[in-house]
Design brief:
The chain has one domain. By secondary structure, it is an all-alpha fold. The relative contact order is 0.13. The chain is 73% helix and 0% strand. It contains ten helices and no strands.
Length: 219
């Protein structure tokens, strides 16, 4: 596909990813989620502030943004190829992979730096999970197991998220060493996820990070 097509799918993925689900759900309840709890618009803070049902909804919706961006990107890719080259043409595996990577990257960037909230968003864990459900589901499953195990052992969601952000690229490199580009992208997204947890890391070091089940989180 020409560069213009990739620009269009990137823009669409960013806009889909930028929908601030946690902020909107909290706003519907008369709460500015940015001013309570950790101040983050993601599922963990939504669950703590708004309760489990709302938090689970935000989690699933944020994951759906990542998966949906990839799914819709591939549909656009297929439509564009058929429209441009003929009804019998289908995208090559390389074109599909490049589309998935492009939409995945920009969906996560949209969530983390949403244009609707002055480019301040979430940490991208759920959205990244949705992206890798489309890109590398087995690697995601292993990273999810590491995420859950880390939370069970420490009762820190942030530790689970950081552990998962390390496990995902590690698993991708081990399971798909031939796909260097995917490994590089996954490593970059993992590093971004860890960077977005810098305040959590500071609180972990200071001993002020909230454990799972606590009602309030110190900033």
């Amino acid at each position: 596909m020409p560069i213009l097509a990739y620009i269009l799918v990137a823009l669409g993925a960013y806009l889909l990813g930028s929908i601030p689900t946690g902020f909107l759900v909290a706003k519907a309840k008369g709460i500015d989620i940015r001013s309570v709890g950790s101040g983050n618009i993601g599922a963990t803070n939504a669950m703590r502030v708004l309760g489990k049902p709302a938090g689970i909804f935000v989690l699933l919706a944020d994951a759906a943004k990542g998966y949906g961006a990839c799914y819709l990107g591939v549909i656009f890719c297929s439509f564009y190829i058929r429209w441009h080259y003929g009804a019998m043409c289908i995208p090559t595996g390389e074109q599909v992979e490049h589309t998935l990577l492009t939409t995945g990257i920009f969906a996560v960037l949209g969530h983390n730096y949403t244009c609707w909230l002055k480019f301040k968003g979430g940490k991208g864990i759920a959205t990244t999970a949705g992206v890798y459900l489309a890109l590398a589901p087995w690697a995601l499953l292993i990273a999810l197991a590491v995420f859950i195990l880390a939370i069970v052992l420490t009762r820190y969601v942030s530790v689970g998220s950081i552990a998962g952000a390390i496990a995902l690229p590690t698993t991708v490199w081990l399971m798909m060493p031939q796909n260097i580009f995917l490994g590089i992208v996954t490593t970059a997204l993992g590093a971004l996820a860890i960077y977005k947890h810098k305040s959590n890391i500071q609180r972990l070091i200071a001993g002020t990070e909230n454990r799972l089940g606590q009602k309030k989180e110190s900033k």
